[in-house]
Amino acid sequence: GAGVSQSPSNKVTEKGKDVELRCDPISGHTALYWYRQSLGQGLEFLIYFQGNSAPDKSGLPSDRFSAERTGGSVSTLTIQRTQQEDSAVYLCASSLDQGMGGYTFGSGTRLTVV
Amino acid sequence: AQSVTQLGSHVSVSEGALVLLRCNYSSSVPPYLFWYVQYPNQGLQLLLKYTTGATLVKGINGFEAEFKKSETSFHLTKPSAHMSDAAEYFCAVYSFGNEKLTFGTGTRLTIIP
């Protein structure tokens, strides 16, 4: 597609429920990244996919967080048993190669856990 | 490991005044540096980047930044602020070791009419 598409744009969920956030990167971009942006905070790296390589999961904050990327394209970030501290904007980005030229970001998913 | 520090989490300037947003980096190798802008309820948009070559980089919306190796800085400037420049600005450095961008904590720019 023309840009990075994320869905849903907003998600309100009850504490303890599981949620899935979707990212559709730019066609042909081999790298895909998930970041979390909490209120008033910077960007916190979560996970990085590069082609068919094993993902870099070093930023995932707990085992309740997981992500997959199917067919080297669409990615889903799953948060199990959501907690109030998971409330944040989740940003997805994609890039050519290893991202040395910068990333293209989606508009994000605003997650609110009540 | 590479890192960036943005001085000033909030900056206010009058419309028409100079905009200066500060970014200092730490890198053991020649850095690739970026500035992104985030408007409310939107994702981040690339303003400009420095990889190699000319140290003065021009970006969109009249912004520019100068890479100064001796000062380990990559400050963002715009000669005359416009109301539409109100946003949050992030500086970032690319890490060749782990193939990721590391972002600063951001600077919120407010324009005073």
What does this molecule look like?
- The complex is a heterodimer of chains A (114) and B (113).
- Chain A has no helices and ten strands.
- Chain A is an all-beta fold.
- In chain A, the strands form two sheets. In chain A, strands 2, 4, 5, 8, 9 and 10 form a six-stranded mixed sheet that branches. Chain A has a four-stranded antiparallel sheet with strand order 1-3-7-6, with no helix packed on it.
- In chain A, strand 8 and strand 9 form a beta hairpin.
- Chain A is globular.
- The N and C termini of chain A lie far apart (33 Å).
- Chain B is an all-beta fold and 113 residues long.
- Chain B is built from no helices and eleven strands.
- The termini of chain B are far apart.
- The model of chain B has no long low-confidence stretch (mean pLDDT 93).
Taking all Cα atoms into account, the compactness measure Rg of chain B is 13 Å
What are the low-pLDDT stretches of chain A, counting only 5+ consecutive residues below 50?
none
Largest sheet of chain B: 6 strands, mixed
Radius of gyration of chain A: 13 Å
Largest interface: A-B, 27 and 22 residues
Count of DSSP-assigned helices of chain A: 0
* Gap from first CA to last CA of chain A: 33 Å
Count of strand segments of chain B: 11
* Oligomeric category: heterodimer
Mean pLDDT of chain A: 93
The main sheet of chain A comes to: 6 strands, mixed
The portion of residues forming beta strands of chain A comes to over 45%
Residue ranges of chain B: pLDDT <50 for 5 or more in a row?
none
Strand content of chain B: over 45%
